[in-house]
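lol so apparently i was supposed to do this last week
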Amino acid sequence: MRQRWKVFGLLVLLGLLAAACGRGATPSEQPTPTPTAQAAATPSGQRLTVVVSLPIFATMVAAVGGDLVEVSAVLPPGTDPHTYQPAPRDVAKLAEAAVVVYNGGDLDLWMERQLEAVGSRARVVVLSEGLEPPPGAEAEHEHEHEHEGTPEAGKDAHDHEHGVNPHFWLDPDFGIVYVERIAAALAEVDPAHAETYRTNAERYIREIRAFDEWAQGQIATIPPERRKLVTFHDAFPYFAAHYGLELVGVVILSPGREPSPQEVAQLVERIRAEQVPAIFVEPQFNPKLAQTIAQEAGVRVLELYSDAAPAGLDYLGMMRQNVTNVVEGLRG
Ligand SMILES: [Zn+2]
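anyway here it is w/ zinc ion bound
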């Protein structure tokens, strides 16, 4: 682990050098990008550069910032953030950002480490900072921990500090917190447009609340004994708690670690015993294992979105699709 970060540090340096050389060699046809330190004084007409970790957060920034921001994500679309290996090009991107947004926890630690390596002076927004799991979700997480076994060699103490499940945004109440935090940061860095950011955020939050009301009505159409969720990775405890779904199990306990044959057999057994109507895969993972499990248990396979959304769907679009798929899979 430590060795890997040493190598990464080197790549960072090389990346920075390359970026610096590239800038020096280019004839000054275009205005030099505003240095990060002066980003607060962005002249009117120039868009605020925002870099986020996951593409789904970029859609939240776009909803709040509109044309005033230029937002890009470090993680490529359809990629698993838990096992993502940063690339040198990510560093150049981060060095130019006036605002940096990431989730925190063991979802996108690579972003935190990159920021340190770059020595970025951007306004940093850690979306999940200080958030506590909602009532009913905490016990579920501890339950999963019992099955994790001995810590793997190479897992350092830093990883263990982040024991809280990081997928807060899948509960719309926390989605609203994320939007509020993004709006506050944009307003702080670009005070000339603070009013616009606030208005946009308020509108988006109203849409999230309207979605949630619709979603509660949709979930209510599922017979109570069928409100049971088996997902691919452990991303949905807060979603499940918010909508009164029972989280029966996950296919993989942590991304990058394949379950043992015994764990697979246990899950099949639990799906049968609990009469779970369907299981859900996610596009950033190979669905083969889940398909085998579904076949053995005799249930359907549908898709859910957490860390990677389908192209063209923003946060709300993704949430709507999740609720639609849950209802289709479980209602019967
Ligand atoms: Zn995840």
